[in-house]
Amino acid sequence: MTDPIHIVGAGMAGSEAAWQIARAGLPVVLHEMRPALGTFAHRTGDCAEMVCSNSFRSDDDVMNAVGQLHWEMRAAEGLIMAMADRHKLPAGGALAVDRDAFSASVTAALRAEPLVTIQPGEITDLPREGRWIIATGPLTSPALGAAIQAETGADALAFFDAIAPIVHADTIDMGVAWRQSRYDKGETEDERTAYLNCPMTRDDYEAFIDALLAADKTEFHEGETAGYFDGCLPIEVMAERGRETLRHGPMKPVGLTNAHKPAEKPYAVVQLRRDNALGTLYNIVGFQTKMKYGAQTEVFRMIPGLQNASFARLGGIHRNTFLNSPTLIDDRLRLRARPNLRFAGQVTGVEGYVESAAMGLLAGRMAAAEALGRDLGPPLQTTAMGALVHHITGGAEAKTFQPMNVNFGLFPPVEGRGGRRGRKDRYPAYTERAKADFAAWLAG
């Protein structure tokens, strides 16, 4: 029996990496500091706990790069996608899950695997012996973060990741709100009615923006800067960029018809998405915030339909750290200066649950192959996983490196299909090629 491979962090990336290593027939030790040492955002010690949204975003593997990434993880028999599919909730074209049931099932699967040992306790330094995967995510502990910074010689980069509030469903006024997915998207009635919609008139919207801009916000500590990731901007930051920004973003009214007043077009709409299988909790879509708690309840109850809302969790904000991966990490996800260390997940500069899990999947497979005397390179850049690896390990400009979601802009153009091709033609060409190339990588 070979020495075990060690993983630090049992989030999306660490959990997936552990699963892939065990599937390769190798022992793995998964180190997790929670719950003994908690974080601002986590509530439990479970593996793969979802701390922000409960959505893995689009599940469309023909027209969407995120959906293609889902396809690749399913093809690679990933644990995260298997458990997400098991605990799926209606969400239109998105893959949303019952977050507590999801993380509990990931934890149970790993604990039931004989080759996986979950070892509690904090790792405070970077080991010099053995094979290790560092998958500590955006909330890496201060001690380990300092060790990484000392080893890399680079200043830790940071932005701030904000958490959206969750509302008790029975406190939403359904005489005002109605059920509908945008453009009635979905194959079943549950999918087509997956969201609750709260309409706003122009006066409602203007008053809401005024209150949002005037609300008390979380103060930053000395030396911190608010370098937000554009894919997860707090709503008040969006509002500061222009009064109409929210109406053309998370509050856009297009594709929705007020069931109570079908002849009246809402000026803006706030959407809520089911957060658990029981349908007792809903999160406010796109409403990440850094408002103080008291201000949140006042401002969010201005939304028609939420005037009597009770909140299961209010929004919050936390620091998110990541490496300047283009200068530090090779395409096997190894630290160039210390190749016994691999990094995976958000700490590498990918953004999103599924992107983090995908990097864990690759790191696990690469570490297992190396332990078995083989070298495993990444999939081609024409695949979703390959495009992400290429971006973080050299495709991005190091001086301006920022966290990135998977998107078709990271894929090389399809040969012979350039020019002014529309999305309906171009995107399927990307995903068709990606599926073929990823299947070939798996087979090889």
UniProtKB/TrEMBL annotation:
Domain MnmG N-terminal: 5-374
Cofactor: FAD
A GO CC term assigned to this protein in UniProt: cytosol
Domain of life: Bacteria
SUPFAM superfamilies, A to Z: FAD/NAD(P)-binding domain
Localization, UniProt: Cytoplasm
Enzyme class: transferase
Pfam families cross-referenced by the UniProt entry: GIDA (PF01134)
Keywords in alphabetical order: Cytoplasm, FAD, Flavoprotein, Methyltransferase, NAD, NADP, Transferase, tRNA processing
Gene Ontology annotations of biological process type: tRNA methylation; tRNA wobble uridine modification
Cross-referenced Gene3D superfamilies: FAD/NAD(P)-binding domain (3.50.50.60)
Predominant location category: cytoplasm
Entry's EC annotation: 2.1.1.74
Binding site for FAD: 9-14
Reactions catalysed according to its record: uridine(54) in tRNA + (6R)-5,10-methylene-5,6,7,8-tetrahydrofolate + NADPH + H(+) = 5-methyluridine(54) in tRNA + (6S)-5,6,7,8-tetrahydrofolate + NADP(+); uridine(54) in tRNA + (6R)-5,10-methylene-5,6,7,8-tetrahydrofolate + NADH + H(+) = 5-methyluridine(54) in tRNA + (6S)-5,6,7,8-tetrahydrofolate + NAD(+)
A single MF term (Gene Ontology): tRNA (uracil(54)-C5)-methyltransferase activity, 5,10-methylenetetrahydrofolate-dependent
Function comment: Catalyzes the folate-dependent formation of 5-methyl-uridine at position 54 (M-5-U54) in all tRNAs.
NCBIfam families: gid_trmFO, PRK05335.1
Entry-linked HAMAP family: TrmFO
Family, per entry: Belongs to the MnmG family. TrmFO subfamily.
Entry protein name: Methylenetetrahydrofolate--tRNA-(uracil-5-)-methyltransferase TrmFO
Species annotation: Paracoccus sphaerophysae
Gene giving rise to this polypeptide: trmFO
